[in-house]
Amino acid sequence: MAEAQNTPAGSTTAGSIAVAAESTVATRMSAPPSFDVADFPVPHGREEEWRFTPLERLRGLHNGTAVATGSGVKVAIEAPEGVTVETVGRDDSRLGKAGIPVDRVAAQAYSSFEQASVVTVAKEAVLTEPIRIAVHGEGGVAYGHQLIQLGAFAEAVVVIDHTGDAVLAANVDYVLGDGAKLTVVSVQDWDDTAVHVGQHNALVGRDASFKSIVVTFGGDVVRLHPRVAYAATGGEAELFGLYFTDKGQHQEHRLLVDHNTPHCKSNAVYKGALQGDGAHAVWIGDVLIQAAAEGTDTYEMNRNLVLTDGARVDSVPNLEIETGEIVGAGHASATGRFDDEQLFYLQSRGIPAEEARRLVVRGFFAELVQQIGLPDVEARLIEKIEAELKASV
Amino acid sequence: MATLEIRDLHVTVEADNATKEILKGVDLTVKQGETHAIMGPNGSGKSTLAYSLAGHPKYTITSGTVTLDGEDVLEMSVDERARAGLFLAMQYPVEIPGVSVSNFLRTSATAIRGEAPKLRTWVKEVKETMAGLQMDPAFAERNVNEGFSGGEKKRHEILQLELLKPKIAVLDETDSGLDVDALKTVSEGVNRVRETGEVGTLLITHYTRILKYIKPDFVHVFANGRIAASGGAELADQLENEGYEAYTKGGASA
Asked: Where is the SUF system FeS cluster assembly SufBD core domain (chain A) (predicted)?
């Protein structure tokens, strides 16, 4: 991909590698992590963690004015045998163990939900069918919390589908026991009016593997925080993401991988295509390698493909390294345009403009889609990408 | 027999907030089976002619006509021109990230031929054509023009020429930046297509070197946005000895 020279006007692709005694990932936030919304000031938009987000479109999730309406979203969980599904109250002691809210909306969600869903896969249970969680917006305001926990050596695939219209702040915790393997596909296929903000916390057990595939197509504003930390050595995390940001949409993915433990791996690959006026994608990739995390192996990459004028990408990879005793650490970010010259080249070989655009976008995403490893999810994504393209031309 | 007719073609380009006329009345007829070399100094408008024929949006046709077998080429979109049988081998083909050569070639062949080529014969056809151009089969799995060397880009252009079998092929400085071995290989590819007798070739070049390998029927000298002189292969020899000076000073006469 043609890189810097093709970055659309107004976009940023900044990166940094810091070797710091004190983590700026933590210190640049306006308040330390907390479960209590009162510990966070109401953001005004100039804070580091909010500067890319259109606060006025959050419908009050950030300032306490969004009041739950009772019928905001419906959650339906389909689970194969061997899985326990519970609805629990706020006081359930298992909640909140994977991570602490890092910003005001995540804390608002944690402070406001009334019931949480807890999905438990018993130790050593190997599921052959995925667990399906359907979150359907009914047009109201809602706060939610979900916990998905796998016992030692359990293996599961979870598909979370978000559809309909809602103003939703909800967090998801993933707790992986030793040697467990969890693949989560979270699809944000909202109506174009929905607002969805959430923090996904994964706590990866000893020698466990966590694979997350975040797919964002819909929504007016979607702002997600996929975060990973390791409970013990030998853990692996793969964070894949795919977004297709259309006219007027704001889609923001803020990753953090906290290498707090020795000999863990992480790999993040997010790819996005944008088209239309006011389409805005934000990608923040924070990787922190703490002093104790010797033997860490990490890589993160963000690629964006801007298909039309008027779209904007902000991509900020950030790697902080507090120990030199690591296997590898790297990051890459690039934003390219599907430009007139590429279109001309393909057309000059007889390929009509619409098909040329499809060819390029399909190619751009194919490599990522193939890494998902779940044929039915892959097929659905390709179908969805085609539909997005059709809607545009 | 396919015929490309260019009549009094005038073309402008926008540069530095000004409109500049680059082509100032080009007349040329290229028939199937013929090879025309267009030679001229830098900045004479040779490449503008090539890109205008292909329909690049940067160039504005202000007057004149271009027809292919009587059909108005200037009315056609870029892809329609290609499907009508016009092919441009580019001097600087662009990278298409994420699209493999094999996927690109098949999509293109499907568009040009009007139906998807049968997979088994297609694979064989691509393989043999690549072998003829001394291209490694692994090449097919790379992304279009991504990280290609200058020579690889040119081979890839000629590979398309051989597979797409156009009626009229415009080769824009296909020889530039090639070493002698690569030039020979690429020329052999062009000659394979010419030998079918089914393509009219417009060979645009700055140097006479390529004419040792691809023998033109006609040589045209391009200067100041138009054809300043036309002749047979002997005109190329004259240019080799005397350069373009006679044509660049004070315009056209020969």
From this structure: 137-364
d(CA B28, nearest CA chain A) in Å: 21
Residues 6+ apart with CB under 8 A from A9: none
SS3 A3: coil
Q: How far apart are CA A145 and CA A114, in angstroms?
A: 9
DSSP letter for each residue of A96-127: T-S----SHHHHHHHHH-SEEEEEEE-TT-B-
∠ CA A328-A235-A210, rounded to 5°? 105
**Domains in chain B: ranges and CATH:** 3-248 (3.40.50.300)
Distance CA A285, CA B65 (A): 55
Query: A363: distance to nearest CA of chain B, Å?
Result: 4
Which run of H or of E encompasses B238?
helix B233-242
Between residues 340 and 359 of chain A, which touch chain B (CB distance below 8 Å)? Answer: 340-342, 344-353, 355-356, 359
Report which secondary-structure segment, H or E, holds A253: strand A250-259
pTM (two decimals): 0.81
What pLDDT digit, counting tens, does each position of B129-172 carry? 999 999 999 999 999 999 999 999 999 999 999 999 999 999 99
Do B44 and B204 contact (CB within 8 A), yes or no?
no
**Chain A residue with minimum CA distance to B170:** A348
Contacting residues of B for A336, CB less than 8 Å apart: 97
Instruction: Determine the Cα–Cα distance for residues A267 and A256; give it in Å rounded to an integer.
Output: 11
Contacts of A59 (CB under 8 A, 6+ apart): A66, A141, A167, A195
Give all strands (DSSP E) within A21-109, no chain letters.
73-78, 83-89
Strand order in the sheet with B18-31: B18-31, B3-15, B59-68, B71-72
pLDDT in tens, A183-199: 999 999 999 999 999 99
